Amino acid sequence: MEGRPRIGIVVTEPGRRRYFADQTVERLRAWAELDWLIRPGADREPGVPDDPAARAELARFAVDLDALIVSYGSPRVDQTVLAGAPRLRFIGDTHGDRFAARVDLAAAAARGVVVSDTTNGSSDPVAEWALALALIGLRNAGSHFRRLIQGELLWPDRNVLLSDPGYLNGELTGKTVGLIALGNVGRRLLELLAPFQVKVLAHDPGAPDVLANVYDLDLTSLDQVLAGSDVVICLVPLTQATRGLIGAEQLAQLRPGTVFVNVSRGAVVDTEALIARLLRGDLIACLDVVEPEPLAVDSPLRQLPNVFLSPHIAGVTDAAEFRFFELMADEVERVLSGRRPRYRLTPRESGGG
Known about the structure:
Layout: E1 6-12, H1 13-19, H2 22-29, E2 33-39, H3 52-62, E3 67-70, H4 79-83, E4 90-93, H5 105-110, E5 114-117, H6 123-138, H7 141-149, H8 158-161, H9 165-168, E6 176-180, H10 184-193, E7 199-203, H11 210-215, E8 218-219, H12 222-228, E9 231-234, H13 248-251, E10 259-262, H14 271-278, E11 284-287, E12 307-309, H15 318-321, H16 323-336
Parallel strand pairs: 1-2, 1-3, 3-4, 4-5, 6-7, 6-9, 7-8, 9-10, 10-11, 11-12
């Protein structure tokens, strides 16, 4: 490539302030020309603008770009935009949740344009919270907390403690942990689990066999993960195929004493079936996500002693906010330098593009 490459970024002004750190911007400017297309909207603008004026504005903006980074407020990068940008080699979405809502993947592939998504900028805190919820569940800490704040004096008879799940199953070390999905969160969680010397069962039909050897785990069926684990952690993205993936039949396979953690999406689990299973009292659930959200005030999940809840905060930390763009800056430098991307975007839904 002759001269300095030109990189364009499309985002709302609040989104720029919240996610695009000045130091990372300057890092890109050290070796590339940087242009901004500031779009109207909030820092987390829902949906993708579909009006003709917005699409035309994006097409004009992309004409001379070598790389295009899109985020909240950006219209879809479609065939028209790509046709008018012959130099374009890379498209990156910082907040696409890996669903390609802002990029026509088929059209990009036809032109040899690499597409990446760095939504995994929030994977680290999600993995940390998944580990924390597993530990909370094993210690039955949610139930203890409820009782303490209600003014109960716990364990006046210490013998009662001997039948508590937190006493019987309280240590993670040496347990069998089942992971549903081995994406970015799952692989980071495996690193965090390593010191606990756990056995890992994992269900992920898309995971390459080599991961089993790399992380010393067993890839298996969903049924075996559910029936064979002391702790089951749900990490799967919500797609047409995974909506309602865990229903009454699947929940029935969990052994008494199992801790069930969900940090993915609430709709992956049948809420009514989960409540029915929890009412048996032999399962502990630690849930960062529920369906629907927000959780109804009168939902049994708010009252059950064997449920610990957090309000969909697993991936929301200050440190993670700038990481989306930091990872994207690394990615665009890789691709424009002739190296392979790490976070290539592929369709999640069958037939998606």
